[in-house]
């Protein structure tokens, strides 16, 4: 039967009741995580039942992997338990994804029989958690300088491949190769130097290309073979406007030859590697589909 009198604990008794060390109690108390203790006539700390409940809560949250600052925010009512647990779950998922990438990198290296070049390539790419920052930086260096910020951001977002949460060894190698390619500033500068669209017409040109690639992407999604149609008409019209010309048989023939002659090897490699990482059709795959559709049109003409 309860007496209605709250128990009080010495620091040692509180530590024993909570299953922690005296040092831990003192650390939490000094850090403001526990209710302020009373003092006995001899000046010793005396803790109430609220301190025990707080200690037990912190210990349980820590057992789930919550860092002390996050657990402290919960017991101080600065953060809800639901939000804290959601935050920790996100962090655990991030760590699991990083571990899966490391595992895939190790498998890729084993398949390469410990090749020194592969070790350098994968080791450099896996120094940090896999991410797309290097890819984004590459595109910002490649795109024309005179381009509206909103359009630039849209192109960069569309050009970045989604990274798989559970990569294969082949995807880990593709990621490492793509990371090396996009981290090469000299290569990015060379790509932009080879681009014919660093001019005032670039915004309209890229807007039009985006529409054509979206149409081609829809065809790719349904596994349609390259063929003349709305996507190709849109693609040709974009180039015709950029060349101050019109869509005609002669223009299509010349455009097909131009696309083959000016294909950038670095960009071709970028899209090949990007295609290894994502199941969704990339802009590069859409470009290839449209180029091949132009060839189909020419052979049928």
Describe this entry's structure for a reader.
The protein is mostly helical and 301 residues long. The chain has two domains: 8-79, Multidrug-efflux Transporter Regulator, Chain: A, Domain 2 (Orthogonal Bundle); 100-300, no CATH class. The protein is built from 15 helices and three strands. It has helices at 11-18, 22-30, 49-63, 68-75, 81-111, 116-125, 133-142, 149-159, 169-182, 185-194, 202-221, 230-242, 249-261, 265-277, 283-300, and strands spanning 8-9, 38-39, 45-48. Helix 9 packs antiparallel against helix 14. The chain starts with 7 loop residues before the first strand and ends with a helix.
**Percent of residues in helical segments?**
55-70%
| Strand order, sheet with most strands | 1-3-2
Overall geometry comes to elongated
Pattern of helices and strands: EHHEEHHHHHHHHHHHHH
Secondary structure tally, helices: 15
Mean pLDDT: 89
């Amino acid at each position: 039967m309860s007496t209605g009198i709250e128990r009080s604990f010495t620091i040692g008794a509180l530590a024993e009741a909570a299953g922690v060390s005296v040092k831990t109690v003192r650390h939490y108390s000094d850090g403001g995580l526990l209710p302020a203790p009373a003092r006995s006539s001899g000046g010793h700390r005396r803790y109430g039942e609220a301190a025990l409940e707080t200690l037990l809560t912190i210990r349980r949250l820590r057992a789930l992997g919550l860092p002390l600052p996050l657990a402290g925010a919960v017991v101080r009512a600065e953060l809800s338990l639901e939000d804290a647990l959601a935050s920790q779950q996100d962090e655990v998922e991030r760590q699991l994804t990083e571990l899966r990438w490391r595992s895939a990198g190790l498998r890729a290296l084993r398949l390469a029989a410990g090749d020194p070049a592969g070790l350098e390539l994968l080791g450099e790419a896996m120094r940090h958690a896999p991410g797309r920052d290097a890819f984004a930086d590459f595109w910002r260096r490649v795109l024309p300088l005179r381009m509206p910020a909103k359009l630039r951001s849209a192109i960069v977002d569309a050009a970045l491949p989604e990274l798989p949460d559970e990569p294969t060894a082949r995807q880990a190698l593709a990621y490492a190769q793509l990371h090396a390619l996009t981290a090469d500033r000299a290569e990015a500068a060379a790509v932009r130097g080879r681009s014919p669209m660093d001019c005032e017409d670039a915004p309209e040109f890229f807007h039009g290309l985006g529409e054509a690639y979206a149409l081609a992407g829809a065809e790719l999604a349904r596994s349609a073979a390259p063929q003349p149609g709305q996507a190709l008409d849109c693609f040709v019209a974009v180039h015709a406007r950029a060349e101050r010309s019109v869509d005609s048989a002669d223009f299509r023939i010349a455009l097909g030859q131009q696309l083959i002659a000016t294909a950038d090897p670095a960009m071709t490699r970028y899209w090949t590697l990007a295609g290894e990482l994502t199941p969704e059709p990339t802009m590069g795959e859409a470009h290839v589909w449209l180029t091949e559709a132009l060839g189909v049109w020419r052979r049928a003409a």
